[in-house]
Structures are given as C-alpha cells and as structure tokens.
Amino acid sequence: MTTRTRILTGITTTGTPHLGNYAGAIRPAILASQDANADSFYFLADYHALIKCDDPQRIQRSRMEIAATWLAGGLDVNRVTFYRQSDIPEIPELTWLLTCVAAKGLLNRAHAYKASVDKNLENGEDPDAGISMGLYSYPVLMAADILMFNAHKVPVGRDQIQHVEMARDIGQRFNHLFGKGKEFFTMPEALIEESVATLPGLDGRKMSKSYDNTIPLFTSAKDMKDAISRIVTDSRAPGEAKDPDNSHLFTLYQAFATPEQEQQLRSELLDGLGWGEAKNRLFQLLDGQLGEARERYHQLMARPSDMEDLLLVGAKKARAVAGPFLQELREAVGLRSFVNQASEAASTKKKAVKAARFVSFREDDGSFRFRLLAADGEQLLLSRNFADGKAAGAVTKQLQSGQALDVRSEALGFTVWLDGACIADSPAFADSAARDAAIEAVRIALTPIED
Ligand code: TRP
C-alpha cells in the first residue's frame, strides 16, 4: 500500500478573497490537489473565524464567498475532502482532549496572544484586556484541525509556522502520555511555498485587506477594473521609458502572464508604453484568466443550496476519518464503555500472548539460550545457558505450560525460576514501576490462551 501525502489547510472565514489570496494560496492549493500522490483536506475554518469576528452576517457571507471562490477556482470535490470545520463535531471534541495536555506556558508564547498583551501593556491596560479564551486557545483548535486527519504537510503563510510547531508539540505530548509506544498522531510539517507570489497591492505594499490596497477577485469586472486604475505608478509620461523591475504593476502582471507575455510587456514598457495602457493590459490578462471562474462564482452564489450539499458530502467524508479515530483516542484517555471491559481485557491479553515470542540462539561456546521478546520487540527475559537446544526448548515449553510462574524481583530487575534453579534474568529497568510492569507482561505472555 502506498500512502499518499496528506495535505491539509484551513481558511479563516472572515473576509472576501482578493487577488492576493488567489495567487498566494488558492491557486497553488488547487494545483497541489491535482497531484495523484496528494490526499488533500481543505476546509473553512469557521470556528477560528468566531475568534476574530462577532458579526454573524459577515461570518455567514464570508463562508459562502470563500466556498464559492474555491469551487469556482476549479477545486475538484471528488478528489479532495472539502468541508466546514463547524460540520465536524469531532474537532471541538479533540480540541478538549488536546487542551488537557497542552502546556499553558506553551500557549503563553503564541505570537498572536503575545502581540495582544504587548499592545495592552503599551496602552497601560490590564495585560489580558479584551483577550478571549478563544484567542488564547486558538493554537489548540488549530492543532486539532491538523492532528485529527494526521496531516503530513500544512501549507500556510509564515505567520502560521509557530502554530504548526505547536501542533507537533501538543501531538507529541499526547502520543507520549497515551500512546504506549504507539504514535497516534503524525507529526505535521508547515509547507511554505517559496516560489508562490506574495502579490503587491495597489500601493506596492503586500496586498492585504488590512492595508486596504486589494484588487477584488470575483465581485465584478468593473470592480477589478476600478481597482487596477488606482494602482500607483511613477509619473513618467507615455513615450518615456519605464523600468519594469521597479513597477509593482509589472509584478502583478508577471504573476499571471506566460513568459512570452511577460517579455512582451517588458519591452513595451522600456519602449515607453503609457501606464494607462499598461493597466489596460493587466486588466485584459486577468479578465481573460478569471472571467469564466467569475461566472461560475456568481452561479454558485446564486444557488447556495448546491454548495450546502457539496459541503455536507465533504463533511461526511471527513467524519468517516475523524469518527473512528476519535473513538480510539477516547479509549486511550480512558473514556470507555462500561460494558465491554472484561472481554476487552481478555482480548488484550490474547493479543499479547500471540505477539510475545521466544527467540533462541547459540553462544560461541556451543551452549543455547533464548530471549522472550514482547510484541514491540522489547526484551523481557534472557535465559541462562543450556547445554543443548533440546534442553532450552524443554524450558520454554514448560514456561508456557500454564504452571504457576516463580518470579523473584530484585532491585531493578527480576529472575525466573524453575524447579529450584534460576533459568532467566530480566534486563535492568529504570524504576520499580517499570520492573513490575515487565513482570506483568511476562505473566501475560506466558499464560496459555483459553478460547
Ligand atoms: N490559522 C489559519 C490562518 O489564519 C487558518 C487555519 C485554521 C489553519 N486551522 C488550520 C491553517 C489548520 C492550516 C491548518 O491562516
């Protein structure tokens, strides 16, 4: 079986996607999802949106706009799992399990929280003024998003790297506390696409809603045209040579043009093409590439129930993964049914019996010894030396016969005795609890299976 790379990312639903979001995140994610080796999980992070926004209309509108943008942009819902975070009740449930192992000190160090505290201190306010538990716990919810689906790669902006690291940290802690050698959670890695464009906005700074310098993506051709007309350029007149490499208009053009188109505009600018005409070229280019998707966007927005259906199918797919996994995690922390306890203990025992094994070997001096190995390969016992293989075999047989086992603990180890002779020794353990656990493992391993 080949395991495909699981790629997962969330989009906080507080705004309307603009051209910068499209080039920087949406377009690359849609392309990545077309790779046959990728198993992509993309979702609307609407629980995260509630942390930043208490305007229900805006939350609802943004969820629809973002869903429509991704779908219109060509996301194939048959290939990827596309869902709303808030349709997956397993996520808040996992959030709580993780909250109980996440160190508070870790969350104290989150950049977003610290920035809010610093701002309060600057203004002479209480350090936690206006800070909700949602903001404080933001990284735990995000860890649940990621760990729930055992994502390998998490494409995010630089500002989110710390959150992915925290997800690793919290997941590791859970594995350590409850995994008993089993890794429940895969360690995710942030994926920062170096080649992906951070588009400049109208004023040349990074395109961002907070700078109010964005170019709208799908609202209308007119909106896009109006924004493009406001791109700041230098004051060179038509006929004067322009420097393409110092023009963010040209940078925007580059992000969408073929190498030939780029070369063409470059030489025309050097030859004195007017800025007005250059803006026109940019509009034509964008409109040509995005016009059809814009149509699809408006169709989708006009029929929200179609989107609802698609997202519910996505939620079903996601929950088919999340549900059974969460069940395992609940069991691991001790949230188990009262009913099946006895039979469960018996089946664990049987598995241990089946899994533990004797391995015998010959020493250089010709004598024979054996080891008893636990299911995970850990050595439970090493025998003393026997004259031949037959004698060693007889002992392993007798050990498994069901007769009461003579185990004698010593400081940090134990010995096993048969007919008044010590026949095997344990390794040294870190403490007496580990020693007692190993004795228990030996007893279980040597108990015959009764069906
Ligand atoms: N916090 C992310 C952002 O603001 C959005 C997000 C929520 C996310 N959950 C996630 C991203 C899980 C990646 C994986 O950009």
Distance between the termini: 33 Å
Number of domains: 3
Beta-strand proportion: 5-15%
Strand count, sense and barrel status of the largest sheet are: 6 strands, antiparallel
Strands, total number: 11
Tell me the number of helical segments per DSSP (H or I, 4 or more residues long). 16
Written overview of the protein:
With 451 residues, the chain is an alpha/beta fold. It has three domains: 5-197 and 303-332, HUPs (Rossmann fold); 209-300, Tyrosyl-Transfer RNA Synthetase, CATH 1.10.240.10; 338-445, PH-domain like (Roll). Helices cover 50% and strands 13% of the residues. The protein is built from 16 helices and eleven strands. The chain has helices at 19-33, 46-52, 56-72, 90-99, 104-108, 111-122, 133-148, 161-178, 221-229, 248-254, 259-270, 275-302, 304-333, 341-355, 389-399, 432-445; strands at residues 5-12, 38-45, 81-84, 153-155, 189-191, 357-362, 368-373, 379-383, 406-409, 414-418, 421-425. The strands form three sheets. The chain has a six-stranded antiparallel beta sheet with strand order 6-7-8-11-10-9. A hairpin with a 5-residue loop joins β6 (357-362) and β7 (368-373). The protein is elongated. The mean pLDDT is 92. Residues 8-10, 12, 45, 48, 142, 145-146, 154, 156, 160 line the site of tryptophan.
Short characterization:
It is built from 16 helices and eleven strands.
Features:
alpha/beta; 451 residues; elongated; binds tryptophan; PH-domain like; 16 helices; Rossmann fold; single chain
Secondary structure elements and their pairing?
Elements: E1 5-12, H1 19-33, E2 38-45, H2 46-52, H3 56-72, E3 81-84, H4 90-99, H5 104-108, H6 111-122, H7 133-148, E4 153-155, H8 161-178, E5 189-191, H9 221-229, H10 248-254, H11 259-270, H12 275-302, H13 304-333, H14 341-355, E6 357-362, E7 368-373, E8 379-383, H15 389-399, E9 406-409, E10 414-418, E11 421-425, H16 432-445
Parallel strand pairs: 1-2, 2-3, 4-5
Antiparallel strand pairs: 6-7, 7-8, 8-11, 9-10, 10-11
Helix pairs in contact: 2-7, 3-12, 4-7, 4-13, 7-8, 9-12, 10-12
The chain binds tryptophan.
Tryptophan binds next to strand 1 and helix 7.
